[in-house]
Records
---
Amino acid sequence: MALEEVKNWFLANRREFPWRENPSPYEVWVSEVMLQQTRASVVVPYFLRWLTRFPTLEALSEAQEDEVIKLWEGLGYYSRARNLLAGAKEVVANYGGALPDTLEELLKIKGIGSYTAGAILSFAFHKKAAALDANVMRVLARYTLFQEEVTRGRGKLEKRLLDLLPEEEPHIVMEGLIELGALICQKEPKCSICPIASNCLALEKGMEGELPLLLKRKETVTLHRLVACIESEGFFLLKKNEKGKIMADLWEFPFVEKGEKSLELFDKLLGVKLTLQRELPLEKQFFTHYKVLLYPNYFLSDKKPVEGYEWVLKKDFLKLPFSSGHFRIARELLKDEK
Ligand code: SF4
């Protein structure tokens, strides 16, 4: 049988994760959305916290967006959390609170794309379905010697995947392929210990290093930002980013591009007199193709109202959803409390 070796290897080597223990469709949905762009070990505590707070799809559908964002804090790409909430409301309104079990219906739900739909059908409903993530694309492109750019050739790869999946327990092979890509057929493939090496066409042709073919990524741009953590009488000056803008609904300290005139820029932006106390440790933040270096400084000032900003009590930091880099700065400031 095709890919029988993957099944045996996976059953003997699978890593234990809370979303792998007989998951409900809702649990697969939440875990797969969290796992996009994030390592599994990082996702575990988020997944457990999420299910404690929102054990069912109905519970999630009744949540306030602020609370959902707060629970997501640190995972980044917050539109995923917003889409989960919007999708949960749709499922309650249109499907009586139960995720449907067909590709066509799943794809109608906000935030569910072809990968997540395939994962739900496979891991929760045990159907023969293609969950084609970057790991599986890499394995298949090599194993079947797929010599087109994989994103453009996604449809063809999905067909190859469905042809390879067995009729019986296809979900085990599907999950096994994801695990194989994560642990063995990595960017630098470990062919010597790969369970499907004997049938791998890329290995046979010596092309495992050249595949998969990928679109050229946009170059990363580094930004340098001076961040002002401004305290007055136990309050800090913060801003909630506007809807529709980058980092929408997330809280941040005031910042300006770092340069010789940074302090003058703060003067212009805020109109409050700042007295520098100390520098805080450098933090990094990543979004789309940007790498942002944050240089936080701790200032004291008068507590004057500043348009577009709010004075927030330091002890309330833990209630607010911050963007990831600013969250780490807030955590650093909270250390002073201990
Ligand atoms: S033999 Fe090597 S290239 Fe082929 S699937 Fe296994 S790890 Fe990947």
---
Amino acid sequence: MAIAVVWLKRDLRLSDQQALVSAAKSGLPVLLVYNFEPLLLSDEHYSARHWHFVAESLNDIKQRLPINSLWVGSEDMLSLFTKLHQRFNISKLYSYQEVGLNNTFERDKSVANWCTHNQVSWSESPYAAVIRGKPNRDGWDHHWQTVMRADTANCDLNSINWLELNQKDTLTTESHINQFLSDSNSKLHGEFQAGGELQAWQVLNSFFENRGKAYAFKLSSPQYSQLHCSRLSPYLAWGNISLRQVYKTLLAHWNQTGWRKSLVAFSSRLHWHCHFIQKFESESDMEFRPVNRGYENLPRISGELALKRLRAWQQGNTGIPMVDACMRCLIATGYINFRMRAMLVSFLCHHLEVDWREGVKHLASVFLDFEPGIHYSQFQMQAGVTGINTIRIYNPIKQGQEKDPNGDFIKHWIPELSGLPATLIHTPWLLTPMEQMMFELELGVDYPMPIVDIEQSYKQAQQLLWSWRNKPKVVMEGQRILQRHVRQG
Ligand SMILES: Cc1cc2nc3c(=O)[nH]c(=O)nc-3n(C[C@H](O)[C@H](O)[C@H](O)COP(=O)(O)OP(=O)(O)OC[C@H]3O[C@@H](n4cnc5c(N)ncnc54)[C@H](O)[C@@H]3O)c2cc1C
């Protein structure tokens, strides 16, 4: 007997699932495979919340299969494929083309070698509208529209020739899923969005039913964005829903009265999704170095001071309420909106002068929606090392005053400050000793003093960044980046 394997990675769904459709068409018995790889489990970009979400997604898939045809392993990828090949004789392997970190790219190369060596044919379908090896953006926007408007790849689950696993294999699969559910559970102390295709559609539908109407007006508020942003990011990042499914739903609601501004804003974000992943695909060593090589030697602090500042930032103890509230919210929920993510990076790199590489994995590990392509591109943009984007140094006090004027968000995440009035909550270090007594807050004891002087750090960062902006290598690299990643004309 020979079989077809669908290798699930970050495409944990059964609809608009090209690999599954192709495997079904092969006529061979089909087995779905997911592997909790030690390579990724030990990678600092990931944390228990991610594997918990994946386990929930797998549970959802398992429950919707007509028979037991999902194999979940937890071992090195090649040893799992070798084991499956010996048992079932894999003839065809199907997956999507992952745009991931360097370790998954290297792993894919060794899987390709393994396939060649074992006469297994491996077909990879493209990820959304991302084009592998594309040297520039010629025709890219047109391609995006074509892919997003094409029919979704669906097949009737009941008519697939599934490979039925025996009781023992099914129990092994269940134990792996449960291990990641329960293992992670004991380490999770927050409220996270639940994984699964069903959940993804519920979240999408609720956005278009009511939540999304105010999207354009609320997306920068740390508090209201939680409700009015789509909250689809973990479902897109782990593939519980495809970008095409989301875009088609958007088009179906395009003429909804009173929604136009929000739908236009949402549509732009869906374009950005693939745009940033395409950037990473075309220049993946941005995982390790600034995309603009001119910034390789941008002066950053190091040693004890850098470590001390980094720790304070990671733990939400910098003494700057808006920064700390956002970080604590992220740690507890895995989510914060775009503006606050940008502010967190800006604060780390510009105000604290810490190298972006020191913070990039921490944010990845707390973002439930960690998506390498978007994350690295955005992180570098906010860290000011691309040389093509406007230099933007966020002032976290101003952000707080504008986006959380009453301090409700801060009070929720920093209960130590909940007794302060709105006029004082964004700058608690200005409290007089008398006020500290009145509001029962001892600075430096109940809540830290700020680790930097924001006004001073802002001025320094601005001077530094503008003085680097016109360096010949930065300019030359900027032109190269524009040629490669931006549509011409
Ligand atoms: C430093 C930094 C790191 C980021 N890392 C990630 C990440 O790892 N994973 C991730 O999905 N997003 C990341 N973003 C982008 C953005 O903040 C999130 O996609 C968004 O906040 C998710 O919430 P939502 O689903 O409610 O978004 P919505 O505003 O409802 O947008 C819908 C979808 O569009 C896409 N999208 C939205 N904003 C952007 C953007 N600026 N760039 C690219 N795609 C976008 C996402 O897929 C999102 O789910 C990052 C932004 C910054 C500044």
